[in-house]
Amino acid sequence: MPVVTIHLMTGYDAATRRRIGTALTNAVAGVIDAPPEGITVMMPEMDPASYMRGGAPRQPGAPRPDPAELVRRFLETMEARDLDAARAMLAPGFTMTFPGAQRMTTLEELVAWSKPRYRFVRKTYERFDSLQDGQTAICYCFGTLSGEWLDGTPFDGIRFIDRFEIEGGRFTRQDVWNDMAEAKARSA
Amino acid sequence: MPVVTIHLMTGYDAATRRRIGTALTNAVAGVIDAPPEGITVMMPEMDPASYMRGGAPRQPGAPRPDPAELVRRFLETMEARDLDAARAMLAPGFTMTFPGAQRMTTLEELVAWSKPRYRFVRKTYERFDSLQDGQTAICYCFGTLSGEWLDGTPFDGIRFIDRFEIEGGRFTRQDVWNDMAEAKARSA
Amino acid sequence: MPVVTIHLMTGYDAATRRRIGTALTNAVAGVIDAPPEGITVMMPEMDPASYMRGGAPRQPGAPRPDPAELVRRFLETMEARDLDAARAMLAPGFTMTFPGAQRMTTLEELVAWSKPRYRFVRKTYERFDSLQDGQTAICYCFGTLSGEWLDGTPFDGIRFIDRFEIEGGRFTRQDVWNDMAEAKARSA
Amino acid sequence: MPVVTIHLMTGYDAATRRRIGTALTNAVAGVIDAPPEGITVMMPEMDPASYMRGGAPRQPGAPRPDPAELVRRFLETMEARDLDAARAMLAPGFTMTFPGAQRMTTLEELVAWSKPRYRFVRKTYERFDSLQDGQTAICYCFGTLSGEWLDGTPFDGIRFIDRFEIEGGRFTRQDVWNDMAEAKARSA
Amino acid sequence: MPVVTIHLMTGYDAATRRRIGTALTNAVAGVIDAPPEGITVMMPEMDPASYMRGGAPRQPGAPRPDPAELVRRFLETMEARDLDAARAMLAPGFTMTFPGAQRMTTLEELVAWSKPRYRFVRKTYERFDSLQDGQTAICYCFGTLSGEWLDGTPFDGIRFIDRFEIEGGRFTRQDVWNDMAEAKARSA
Amino acid sequence: MPVVTIHLMTGYDAATRRRIGTALTNAVAGVIDAPPEGITVMMPEMDPASYMRGGAPRQPGAPRPDPAELVRRFLETMEARDLDAARAMLAPGFTMTFPGAQRMTTLEELVAWSKPRYRFVRKTYERFDSLQDGQTAICYCFGTLSGEWLDGTPFDGIRFIDRFEIEGGRFTRQDVWNDMAEAKARSA
């Protein structure tokens, strides 16, 4: 049955409210086995001047970027090797872990790591999964890799999965798994 | 600011309500950049006889199992090679994809696949991430593998990640990525 | 979509709450063409000490009798010619209007009116319809009459309809229509 | 005490909201013996984009026509013998029952039934009573008939009552009772 | 924790809503020892046509004047000896009590009382405290008096406190205490 | 019209809820000129496990002592010259100001101040007025003093007013005004 009411300050556009409504619906459905049509979400809006906490008026929090969009943009920027743009999306303390590599902290390390492995790689996405944990957004994406080995041989259909952590709209952590070594072993 | 109110039928224990409260808090925090202490969740409870939809009384939906617990139980059951118990946790149509393997549909295929690869494997978990998407629960877990290769050489610290889809409390899909081939290539 | 929430003081039993929920559902459905499963009614309950109007605590109003039950009881009492019991159900100023009769104010008048018409009459009910208008409950019932004419000839299947007004649990007005004259004219 | 809150999507005009408020007030007053000034109805409105059921946005249901207005229009159309207009107001499966007649299904039958009874008839309304039962609206109206008998003699003051059932804005059933036979018997 | 929701009719400006929010926050904080940031006030607004009590639409009550502003204006008017303007602020039955005086009912009495005491007096305000008790607003103000004694000697720093009762926006009672006699005794 | 809803955690007794209800009613009545019977307060209660702020469960804040009772107790303790008990009611940094005295910080100073003024004094209370301002409770009480001058002459009917500030249940400030000097001057 659950009926969820969230009081919002006015100012969130319909798309943001739809994100909120979907997130709340999923939050409830994740814990209670209710029929979908039994989960109602209402989002009445209030003038900011109609809200007070601790006796003080408050401003509405800004909408957060969609983690899946952030990830897609970052990965496209990296595919294009636009390191400056990609670097601007990283938070201080960012770390990344790739198959067979030490934990890396700079994009230059990653480029160096990939050099002896392949000429280039493109991602085809099957799906993005996002969730929030406290102040941290987590986003997974998986699909397949295509590209060329160092010798120019093309490859495709190699499964991959990336996991990202995001805080304050910037990436703090990336973990990557894929079947590249499996594919190489097989082709060897 | 958001204040979230969810009207529940009485009968959910405090732990379930805490799961709901946490899920709703995260749902909001995932879309709105509000200070944590600004997200309030209230879960007033009502006698089921005080609720009606479409003119008909309704029963409260049962709490769903925690996906992370389901996954942990399944993986432990598989490590122990208790195939009957594991099979009982699968939904019809279950598929699984492992590195370098065709899509498999039975646990026996998986056992056969692993035979020429290692003697046994144990999982050390770093983290579980769960989310809900409509009627489907999705759970990721990642960490490291330890065990013995076929020749008895021990291994450990091999990164892995599993992704599960769950419907109606049973698994419909498992996808696995790991660095086993990378590790083998390296040790070769 | 409408979601109706009615805050009640604790103390109304489940049957009364179901009456309230049904009445509210019908009230909405009478004005808005919403799909039935889209009308949700929630009836959270509060300790009377948690309610105040005009700075004064209040007591919950007693449940009103179901008008259809009142009417059925009154009509059965009249069929049994238990005039004392029936009279106790009348409010001061009660009036009744029957086919071909002046407006009557006492049950004795009614008995006198019926004497030259039939020996006795029984009612078979097809349906009761009740509604509330301000402080006045209105109840219709219709169905068929059976009984005996003065000469002992039996009759049945004669359509009738009664309309009652009720205030404070007592009848203030009764209006009756039926096909008795039609039936007599036909049998003549 | 009851405080009724109905969350509506924006778009219902003030007259419709007044109908809703009155219907909810009467719904509560019909079950609980509360002082009138103790029944509060609040109808906060929400942007349709702020509402979701089953994870899907919804559109507000259209306001239903007022049953009393539908009935009045139908009866006026019939008095004017505008059968085409009247027929357009009938649902498939419409039936009507008049004093001394078989159940009829077409307006032509009704016209044929009335031919040997009176030249014409006009209705003076005392009152309309409407209620909703699930998806069915029910409307009663009563008052007096005037007109001319076949021989041109005028009549008036003959009591009548009509009962209508309405679904989806069209009539599915009409039942009529009146004192015509009583009046004729008396005048004979 | 308390979350306070007050449903208002639209039309109150932001300043009035802030007064309401502050008053409600203080009302809660006066009874419950909650951390300030734990008291949330929400003031959703509704079209007046979306509200009904006792089946009747209602108009929003006008904002009351701020008692502290009323008091400040009255005292300034009195300091300026604009008796007509001050008198217009008094309710019938107004009484005032000053140190060493009989209860007075007219401003002329007050002027007569002050004549043998000082040439003039000015107030410096330290603080206004207002509260509401049913239909009566109560306002205290205190601070210091400065002015000239009859012989032209100036004085200042003499503590005073005034207490006012206000009904319907007009003063019904004034009580004054101060250290004038103490100061005179000291200077004697 | 305003309808105030305050969601409380269960555990506040009826007397505390009545204090809350009265405080909220007065808070609204102080800003909006609504008819008293138009101000409704509802205080639904929730299991503490049904409440979360910032993703963390919370405990209900303890009820605060009634400022008027604290003040009455303190003044009675001082009249009885039970300085230890009175001192226990003072917060660090407590200050008090009496007619004709420097600002004092200890009860001993007060006793010393009163010694040359009267033998003893008793208070008759006309009224207590309490309000809350942020974390500070403010309480006024006024009435008349009776007692004996140093020469044994009795006195009574001398007007007084006390103002107290309270934080965390202890007094931080006391201000006193009265007509003692006026009375002495008059009796001189």
TrEMBL record, chains A, B, C, D, E, F:
InterPro entries: 4-OT-like_dom, NTF2-like_dom_sf, SnoaL-like, Tautomerase/MIF_sf
Keyword presence, Isomerase: yes
Gene3D superfamilies tied to this protein: 3.10.450.50, Macrophage Migration Inhibitory Factor
Keywords tagged on the record: Isomerase
GO molecular function, a single term: isomerase activity
Residue intervals of the SnoaL-like domain: 71-173
Entry coiled-coil feature ranges: none
One family name in Pfam for this protein: Tautomerase
Domain 4-oxalocrotonate tautomerase-like: 2-55
Name this protein carries in UniProt: Tautomerase
Annotated source species: Rhodosalinus halophilus
